[in-house]
C-alpha cells in the first residue's frame, strides 16, 4: 500500500472497500490496461482469484451497489407495491425493494453481475472528483470488464476495447455504452422472466382472506390476487 500511495497519493481518499481492493494490486496494475505477455498471465489469474475471494467474503452486491443493503425482506413488501414493478423495467429500478428483489432473482440465474455492474455505473456517473473517478474506473474495469474478471459482463469486443483505452483518462461517460448494452439485456431477457418467477409471484399473490380481485396494468400480463397471470385485454 505504501508503494501505491507513493505513486498515487490521491488514493489516501479512497473508500475503505476500494482501499482494500487496491491493496491487492501491484504498481503494474495501476497503469492503463495493455496487452500482457504469457509470463504475466499467471500473476493476473492469482490476483483475480484473490479479488474474487475478497468480493465473496465482503458481499459482492454490497460492494458495487450505491444502495445500502437493509434488513428488508419480502414480508415488508406489499402486493400493491410489487405490482407496480410490472409496469415497466424502468419502474422496477426506481424502487430499492424492486432492485433488491430483482437482484435475488438474477442470483438464481447466476447473472447478478449485470445489475451489480449497472448500479456501479450509476454511482460512477455521480462522482465529481477526478481522483475518485480514476480509482473507481479501475475498480469497475477490473471487476466487470477485463477478460476473466471475477464478475465479467457480456459485452462485445469493440466496447470492451474502447473502455480499456478510455480509462487511462476516465470521464463520467467511460462505461455508458457498456451500461446501455447490459441494461438492454436485462430489460429484454431477464425482466420478462422475473415477472413470471416464483420470487415475484409470491409477492404479488400475498393477500388477506376474503380480499377482492386485485389487478394492475402490465405490459405483458395481468395478475389476480392469487398471483396468476392472465392475458385479458383490459387491465382493470
Concise synopsis of the structure shown:
The protein is mainly α and 236 residues long. It has 12 helices and 2 strands, in the order ααααααααααααββ. The longest helix is centred in the first third of the chain and has 21 residues.
Describe the secondary-structure layout.
Elements: H1 2-7, H2 16-23, H3 38-58, H4 60-64, H5 79-84, H6 89-93, H7 96-108, H8 113-124, H9 130-145, H10 157-166, H11 176-195, H12 198-204, E1 222-223, E2 229-230
Antiparallel strand pairs: 1-2
Domain RGS: 88-204
GO biological process, one term: negative regulation of signal transduction
InterPro entries: RGS, RGS_sf, RGS_subdom1/3, RGS_subdomain_2
If you had to describe this structure to a student in words, what would you say it looks like?
The protein has twelve helices and two strands. The chain is an all-alpha fold and about 240 residues long. β1 and β2 form a beta hairpin. α7 (about 95-110) packs antiparallel against α8 (about 115-125) and α8 crosses α11 (about 175-195). Mean pLDDT is about 75; it is low at about 1-15, about 55-70, about 205-225 and about 230-235. This is Regulator of G protein signaling 18. Keywords: Signal transduction inhibitor. Pfam families: RGS (PF00615).
Amino acid at each position: 500500500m505504501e508503494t501505491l500511495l507513493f505513486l498515487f497519493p490521491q488514493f489516501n481518499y479512497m473508500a475503505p472497500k476500494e482501499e482494500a481492493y487496491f491493496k491487492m494490486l501491484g504498481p503494474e496494475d495501476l497503469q492503463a490496461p495493455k496487452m500482457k505477455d504469457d509470463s504475466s498471465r499467471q500473476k493476473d489469474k492469482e490476483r483475480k482469484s484473490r479479488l474474487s475471494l475478497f468480493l465473496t467474503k465482503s458481499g459482492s452486491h454490497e460492494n458495487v451497489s450505491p444502495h445500502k443493503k437493509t434488513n428488508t425482506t419480502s414480508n415488508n413488501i406489499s402486493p400493491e407495491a410489487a405490482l407496480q414493478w410490472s409496469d415497466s423495467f424502468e419502474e422496477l429500478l426506481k424502487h430499492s425493494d424492486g432492485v433488491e428483489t430483482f437482484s435475488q432473482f438474477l442470483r438464481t440465474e447466476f447473472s447478478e453481475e449485470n445489475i451489480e455492474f449497472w448500479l456501479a455505473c450509476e454511482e460512477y456517473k455521480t462522482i465529481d472528483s477526478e481522483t475518485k473517478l480514476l480509482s473507481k474506473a479501475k475498480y469497475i474495469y477490473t471487476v466487470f470488464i477485463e477478460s476473466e474478471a471475477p464478475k465479467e459482463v457480456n459485452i462485445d469486443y469493440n466496447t470492451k476495447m474502447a473502455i480499456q483505452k478510455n480509462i487511462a483518462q476516465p470521464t463520467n461517460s467511460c462505461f455508458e455504452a457498456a451500461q446501455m448494452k447490459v441494461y438492454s439485456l436485462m430489460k429484454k431477457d431477464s425482466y420478462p422472466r422475473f415477472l413470471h418467477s416464483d420470487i415475484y409471484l409470491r409477492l404479488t399473490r400475498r393477500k388477506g382472506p376474503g380480499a377482492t380481485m386485485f389487478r394492475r396494468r402490465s405490459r405483458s400480463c395481468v395478475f389476480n390476487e392469487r398471483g396468476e397471470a392472465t392475458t385479458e385485454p383490459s387491465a382493470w
